[in-house]
Design brief:
- The structure is a single chain.
- By secondary structure, the protein is an alpha/beta fold.
- The protein has 2 domains: 225 residues, YjeF N-terminal domain (Rossmann fold), CATH 3.40.50; 255 residues, Ribokinase (UDP-N-acetylmuramoyl-L-alanine:D-glutamate ligase, 3-Layer(aba) Sandwich), CATH 3.40.1190.
- Helices cover 37% and strands 16% of the residues.
- The chain has 15 helices and 19 strands.
- A 10-stranded mixed β-sheet has the order 10-19-18-17-16-15-14-11-12-13, sandwiched between helices. Strands 4-3-2-5-6-7-9 form a 7-stranded parallel β-sheet, sandwiched between helices. A two-stranded parallel sheet has the order 1-8.
- α2 crosses α3 and α9 runs parallel beside α10.
- The radius of gyration is 27 Å and the shape is elongated.
- The chain starts with 13 loop residues before the first strand and ends in an 11-residue tail after the last helix.
- 51% of the residues are buried.
- The structure holds ligand LP7C6HRI and potassium ion.
- The site of ligand LP7C6HRI has 29 residues, from α1, α2 and α3.
Length: 506
């Protein structure tokens, strides 16, 4: 069994609509906590956070649907009213058909209004915005969204997106699909989303990151056991600790990495990957290359040990080299990075097949290594070898020999591929996805588009390989590598205006 060591806290579980509703339902049924109480906890925690950040609220506009999402917004309205702010409520579907708890909250809110500070619009068409107000509070639709936004909902979203005033969303920005992160026709663009009882998977996929804004997780009294079916988590420096450097007694004590790489004209990738891995404090890196390329690596990587195979006139790997490479791998306990700049010779495909058929070393497969793999009928994986594949979307598509689509579909593809092949995958793209054999997947929550430049992939493969060589489990090696990039990106953005380059992430 592949060891998995990542263990996300409940605050980083990513729920889909079905699981959200199931958890909600079980809590009310089995724990006897009624929906009105849950709504009060949800709305009051959002209100407290809003008041904490904004001491001088004068007037706010609340866009309300008819379900419980509107109820959450009405609870917020009550707390803001208590702080002397004016409240304008717009009910897109009127007030005759409100859900039971939302109706109750409207009655309660009215009872709090001693100074005539509430204005209510029963439909969208008569609404005219007050002159000065602070926020638009979005309580139109939450997990109950079932179809594309049309009519007045679409109009209200269109209006909100044109205003200068920031939108604060209750639970989910209206129109964003909680599972896929796709806009259902339109979606409101929030600067902040208060997510109740669980972050939603859609925040991290497709359009999600662009419309969700800052995510404020608000806890609800949902028993943890009800969330155990969840298999998707947000990767975050809040809970993943990055490995700290501890010097070893001897070079072979503190992590050994073999890099099997290179073909004529394609040595740069291996050099980048080696430098990236070396920066994480490994004891030794050993480049195994076709003998004809030795001088290039000698020249560029003085701290790295080189073990050339084959003859002086070999400039790419051939099947006949596999045994020699296997012998070198067996000399030291290590991880292996296979792929940077291997090239696409037919002979190299056979070499990759032969090597993978025999090796039991933990292997990270990147770039041309993945291409060679995609040319094989079956993946030649031994039971003992743990694999980490690091494909970008094009490589993933080649591996499964089918279209993968964006975010949500890519997530499902990665999950399936990992389970079927008992392997770990770091799928590059926005978001970055780590898939594991147990079907658990982890999504990044930073702008990975900064890494979409030639060379970034080599740096990332170097980091994953370094952490694997340092003894981290496959899932954690991928997480540490991604978050290492995120940390470097944010310190670069804090300190300079420089456009990030792949070498900045080494
Ligand atoms: N997670 C929790 O346990 C809690 C959630 N709360 C909040 O409640 C909503 C979910 O409430 P629900 O009533 O199920 O759904 P909505 O409010 O999202 O709205 C459903 C309502 O809207 C209609 N509808 C669906 N799609 C559309 C559309 N495209 N256009 C117009 N109308 C649409 C549908 O027919 C229903 O009538 C959750 O997100 C939280 O905000 C609790 O308050 C606390 C506990
Ligand atoms: K909403």
């Amino acid at each position: 069994m592949v060891k998995e060591t990542l263990d996300a806290p409940y605050s980083h579980y990513l729920l889909d609509a079905e699981l959200s509703q199931k958890v909600d339902h079980r809590t009310t049924e089995e724990m006897d906590i009624d929906g009105f109480t849950l709504m009060e906890i949800a709305g009051s925690s959002a209100a407290k956070k809003i008041l904490q950040h904004n001491k001088q609220l004068q007037h706010n506009v609340f866009l309300c649907g008819k379900g419980n999402n509107a109820g959450d917004a009405l609870v917020v309205a009550r707390y803001l009213l208590q702080h002397d702010a004016r409240v304008t409520l717009v009910f897109i579907s009127g007030t005759d058909d409100l859900s039971k708890d939302t109706q109750k909250n409207l009655k309660l809110l009215r009872a709090f209004d001693k100074k005539d500070r509430i204005t209510i619009y029963e439909k969208w068409s008569g609404f005219s915005a007050p002159n000065n107000y602070n926020f638009i509070i979005d309580g139109m639709l939450g997990t109950g969204l079932t179809s594309d936004l049309r009519g007045d909902y679409a109009k209200a979203v269109g209006w909100a997106n044109q205003q200068q005033h920031p939108v604060l969303a209750m639970d989910i920005p209206t129109g964003l699909h909680p599972d896929s992160g796709e806009k259902m026709g339109k979606a409101i663009e929030a600067v902040r989303t208060f997510s109740f009882g669980g972050r939603k998977q859609g925040f991290y996929l497709n359009d999600g990151p662009a419309v969700t804004g800052t995510i404020d997780y608000c806890d609800l009294p949902f028993p943890n056991a009800y969330k155990e079916d969840c298999k998707t988590f947000a990767l975050d420096t809040d809970w993943v600790s990055l490995p700290s450097y501890t010097p070893g007694k001897h070079k072979y004590d503190s992590g050994v990495l073999h890099i099997v790489a290179g073909s004529e004209g394609l040595t740069g990738a291996a050099i980048m990957a080696a430098r990236s891995a070396w920066a994480e404090g490994l004891g030794a890196i050993i480049i195994i290359c076709p003998r004809g390329l030795l001088s290039v690596f000698e020249h560029n990587l003085p701290s790295v040990i080189k073990k050339p195979v084959g003859k002086k006139e070999d400039y790419y790997f051939k099947e006949s080299h596999a045994e020699q490479v296997q012998d070198i791998l067996q000399e030291k306990e290590s991880s292996m990075l296979l792929g940077p700049g291997l090239g696409r010779n037919t002979d190299t495909i056979s070499f990759v097949e032969q090597l993978l058929t025999t090796t039991t070393t933990d292997t990270i497969i990147d770039a041309d290594g993945l291409w060679c793999l995609s040319q094989l009928e079956e993946w030649p994986k031994t039971d003992q070898a743990n694999w980490i594949l690091t494909p970008h979307p094009g490589e993933l598509q080649k591996l499964i020999k089918d279209e993968i689509g964006e975010g949500h579909q890519r997530l499902n593809t990665v999950r399936k591929l990992c389970q079927e092949n008992n392997t770990t995958i770091l799928s590059k793209g926005m978001p970055g996805i780590i898939g594991t054999p147990s079907r658990k997947c982890y999504l990044t929550n930073y702008n990975t588009n900064y890494f979409a430049r030639a060379g970034s992939g080599d740096v990332l493969a170097g980091k994953v390989s370094a952490f694997s060589a340092l003894g981290l489990a496959a899932d954690e090696s991928c997480a540490a590598a991604l978050l290492n990039g995120q940390q470097k990106l944010s310190s670069l953005q804090k300190d300079t205006n420089k456009i990030p380059e792949p070498t900045d992430f080494i």
